[in-house]
């Protein structure tokens, strides 16, 4: 009788999933590969590039490929992203159907699947629950999350009840394979073939290679937009704004703004910023095809911008020498002040603050004699216009020379001694 091999549970090695580690050159080959996704984002495009070498590119096909790239890109940006993921506007049924079809032509999953992941991305940005977190690596955020099967238990939960009751979303989800294959390959091939007889060119250039470009462009929102650019509204997470990303992604590159104000139908709020998706939605509204365009209050947007500017200013301010804080300076009586001056210290009192100017006398732009004449005195009037109205730079430089504070301030101490009225001292 053959003996059964005994497995010691304590000796079992738990398999580490690729999605739980940053993607590197040494571990990329070990994960659970999703061959369906690999086929559509890598293998088919590779075949398309090879066949393109023997397929002439007609100018009509090139124009059609560009137009269809733009249209399928809008299917993702205006449809999957802003209409369904964020409900930032409403569209009439024909527009919804067209966007659902065009989005399917980008082969990035159904509306329901795509929006569920995107909502998780916003709710759990830069955490392990973010399905395409840039913290797992730039390559992972760009394509790795599609190439390697994700552990469904690791992806954060979100509410998609509205999508579950959307008839267009449900129709596209049920028939996604047919919609995707038809819109990605058959439709662009038919247009070029019936239009000007270029069947193969329509398939290769407007179909396969166009698909590769629109996929890579969209993937840049998950990778490039979390790596390149500025953070004018919030820097606690990775999203960034950059015109290059905007150019690549039909306006989705102002990602720092978008993560801060996700319900806004715009990504770019300045007239000169590139956001054709915003312009398209706005145009649809003008002709009655879209409505309820959501915008965040301008006041709140400016609050966020100002708070971030203030944060950066505070960080910069902390690196600069502003002199000893007034609260940390020792208190000196007027007599102590004059005694120290008599002992050889080059002290000057200005507005109740005592400054040691010994090292600056020889560099004083107004000459040694003028600054020397103020030593041991109240030089407030001299400094603030009596002799010369000093610049802001002079005030800043003076602050680095603080060594003490006059008890009660200059005016109080002088009042004590004016005409021998010592009774004033009792008031203070």
TrEMBL record:
Domain annotation Cytochrome b5 heme-binding: ranges: 329-407
Keywords: Electron transport, Fatty acid biosynthesis, Fatty acid metabolism, Heme, Iron, Lipid biosynthesis, Lipid metabolism, Membrane, Metal-binding, Oxidoreductase, Transmembrane, Transmembrane helix, Transport
GO cellular component terms listed in the entry, alphabetical order: endoplasmic reticulum membrane
Cofactor binding, per record: Expected to bind 2 Fe(2+) ions per subunit.
Major enzyme class: oxidoreductase
Family annotation (InterPro entries): Acyl-CoA_deSatase_haem/ster-bd (IPR009160), Acyl-CoA_DS (IPR015876), Cyt_B5-like_heme/steroid-bd (IPR001199), Cyt_B5-like_heme/steroid_sf (IPR036400), Cyt_B5_heme-BS (IPR018506), FA_desaturase_dom (IPR005804), FADS-1_CS (IPR001522)
GO molecular function: heme binding; iron ion binding; stearoyl-CoA 9-desaturase activity
EC numbers: 1.14.19.1
Transmembrane segments: 35-55, 62-81, 93-114, 176-197
A biological-process GO annotation: unsaturated fatty acid biosynthetic process
Superkingdom as given in the UniProt entry: Eukaryota
Its membrane topology: Multi-pass membrane protein
Gene3D superfamilies listed in its UniProt record: Cytochrome b5-like heme/steroid binding domain (3.10.120.10)
Subcellular location: Membrane
Name of one Pfam family that matches: FA_desaturase
Cofactor(s) in the UniProt record: Fe(2+)
Reaction catalysed by this enzyme: octadecanoyl-CoA + 2 Fe(II)-[cytochrome b5] + O2 + 2 H(+) = (9Z)-octadecenoyl-CoA + 2 Fe(III)-[cytochrome b5] + 2 H2O
Family matches, as PANTHER family: ACYL-COA DESATURASE, DESATURASE 1, ISOFORM A-RELATED
Family from the record: Belongs to the fatty acid desaturase type 1 family.
Function: Stearoyl-CoA desaturase that utilizes O(2) and electrons from reduced cytochrome b5 to introduce the first double bond into saturated fatty acyl-CoA substrates.
Protein name according to UniProt: Acyl-CoA desaturase
Species of provenance: Mollisia scopiformis (Conifer needle endophyte fungus)
